[in-house]
Amino acid sequence: MELSELLEIGEKAKADQKPIRLLCCTAAGCLSSNSGMVRDALSQAVKDQGQQDNIEVCSVGCMKFCGRGPLVEVAPAGVLYEMVTPETAPSIISAIAGGTSTAQKGDLNHPFFTKQMPIVLENSGIIDPESIEEYISVGGYQQLHHVLNEMNPTEVVNEITASGLRGRGGGGYPTGLKWATIAKMPPQQKYVICNADEGDPGAFMDRSVLESDPHRILEGMAIAAYAVGANHGFVYVRAEYPLAIQRLQKAIQQAKRLGLMGSQIFNSGFDFKVDIRVGAGAFVCGEETALIASVEGKRGQPRPRPPYPAQSGLWGAPTLINNVETYANIAPIIREGAAWYAGIGTEKSKGTKVFALTGQVQNTGLIEVPMGTTVRQIVEEMGGGSPGGQVKAVQTGGPSGGCIPAELLDTSVDYESLSKLGTIMGSGGMIVMDQTTSMVDVAQFYMDFCREETCGKCVPCRTGTEQMYSLLTKILKKQATLRDLETLERLCEMVRDTSLCGLGMTAPNPVLSTLHYFRQEYLELLQTDPFRDNGKVATAHQV
Amino acid sequence: MPSVTVESEKVGLSPDDKRLKQLNIVMKRNNYRQDALIEVLHKAQETFGFLEPTILDHVARSLKLPLSKVYGVATFYHLFSLKPQGKHSCVVCLGTACYVKGAGALLDKIAEDYHLHPGETTEDGLVSLMTARCIGACGIAPAAVYDGAVGGKQTAEMAIAKVKEWIAEGSG
């Protein structure tokens, strides 16, 4: 494959497009609202009305506004239809010809769309994820060509370092630094892994990226492999995401067919192949050492670090592990330059972040905003606030994170500000809770999750989560006293300080965070302790 | 684990079993590599419905792994089942978004009407009820998966209607 051939494929794909394109969302959210039938109804209506030369129906990736699916957009006119049904679909075609449509019109000028800054999701909802030609037509694989022909591996690592990109899996470790560590290891077998084990309940960013733009991940991984000196990659993806797996498999086959994966890519000396590893339902496998064990076909149990995977990872070889969203950022950084990327976001958190906005909020869906956007802007302006009234808290970071109470909604979204509040950026789940949600109940929900997902290797996590869960249950049943609450707090600290891996270390976070901001809710559930406080219930200021 | 040799004699696997052939093909395609164990178990569960001890034994021998290791992996991951599953499956998502939007009520209603709890199968073997830790359909919460098809914005009535339909089909 030469660059000219690549450009030719892109040009041809563009030339083949009809003047009017009906973009029909076929990501998992809309598909389960029947978008497959909507697409078929649209195609049929185009045929019936004899518009085949003028209009084409395209299956595209996630169009972000999942709560109002199935979504159909008329391009390039820029008209959006929401909650389209197979019955209302034909009227969309009539509307293009000048008639009126019975399908509900959406508003592309809503803050939900206008406040977004698509970098990771720039192709999402625009190209057909199952067509490599379409990806090439929007400039796909050109960055890989550029890197292989015009940059040496050190330059690539330096570019990523200069961009200020940090790991999007939640930890926020500088990506360039990670790459440099592995690149510096003496030449030997090395691996790159894409962590697509998106386990946080309430998060679906990675799933959407994989379903909407799988080639971008492959391109990002290939660039990473070139930079660190690896020739073999694995994508570890959850079995709960069958559509993502299927699209990824197809993407790998297509890339192989065109010689964009395999040996001597773009006639360079660089070889690269990618295999998919499907998980089997274990949250702990999102932890990097557990993930490596799982890729090796073993029980997904973490091991103590160091040695870090960068030194000794998969089968003892230096291994680069990055999250889906991190890899999705690579191609744009190479294309636009590190300075461009470093100009977006805040001082310490660069670029954009994708969030899955869900829960008790008007507009649910996928959003990508520059770092530094406030939580209030996201929840109230873009999300439209809670349908039932006031927002009580926003949960980020899943079972490892915490809550942002309503009075702190003006916090800006970046790694440091969120950790100051006792929560974390996490992989991007953002769950809005209103006044009907009991925070103690939420804490118990997360503890139940951790209790079931603990791998059982280390004692603090295995028995600690169980004990914390039963204490929370006791509180919820109104059988607990202040002493139980004190025990719970001590236990939280102990589990946090002594667990082996991230799962245990962060498992107490939802409890600590809700205790910090909503202590009164816990106290209201307590019983009097006959042996203390002369039988009185403790009030908030006594504690 | 229960004594496997006795179990395997009881169940017995004919070497001509079509399903066994499918499984063997997958193992061969993976060059009998031990690190392909999870892939092989996925395939085994897909073809046999669940992982019976004979199958685990067969996989262990083929991949030259100790049976204890195969059993360890099969029991570690939630998606592998060592018990037979019902003809139909209803998976209720218990991700945070679904939970906040009332997935718990869905389960309560099914438990109330059919005495069916997560992880259980109806006595006639028709319906298995399971829960999932987020299927990533948070935009349309609460979600449930009926025989592999995701349904969004579920109510307790919708779930009950589906279960009723399956049971009517099975007994009719």
3D architecture notes:
The complex is a heterodimer of chains A (543) and B (172). Chain A is an alpha/beta fold. Chain A has four domains: 18-114, 3-Layer(aba) Sandwich (Glutaredoxin), CATH 3.40.30.10; 139-342, NADH-ubiquinone oxidoreductase 51kDa subunit (Rossmann fold); 352-434, Ubiquitin-like (UB roll); 439-542, NADH-ubiquinone oxidoreductase 51kDa subunit, iron-sulphur binding domain (de novo design (two linked rop proteins)). Chain A is built from 23 helices and 14 strands. In chain A, the strands form three sheets. Chain A has a five-stranded mixed β-sheet, with helices on one face. In chain A, strand 10 (352-359) and strand 11 (365-370) form a beta hairpin. The longest helix of chain A is centred in the last third of the chain and has 18 residues, at 459-476. Mean pLDDT of chain A is 93; it is low at 539-543. The longest helix of chain B is centred in the last third of the chain and has 16 residues, at 156-171. With 172 residues, chain B is α+β, with helices and mostly antiparallel strands. Chain B is built from eight helices and four strands. The radius of gyration of chain B is 18 Å and the shape is elongated. In chain B, strand 3 (144-146) and strand 4 (149-151) form a beta hairpin. In chain B, helix 2 packs antiparallel against helix 3, helix 3 runs antiparallel to helix 4 (53-63) and helix 4 (53-63) crosses helix 5 (67-76). Helix content of chain B is 50%, strand content 10%. Chain B folds into two domains: 4-76, Arc Repressor Mutant, subunit A (Orthogonal Bundle), CATH 1.10.10; 88-171, Glutaredoxin, CATH 3.40.30. Chain B has helices at 4-11, 18-29, 37-48, 53-63, 67-76, 96-100, 103-114, 156-171, and strands at 88-93, 127-132, 144-146, 149-151. Chains A and B meet through helix 2, strand 10, strand 14 and helix 18 of A and helix 3, helix 5, helix 6 and strand 4 of B.
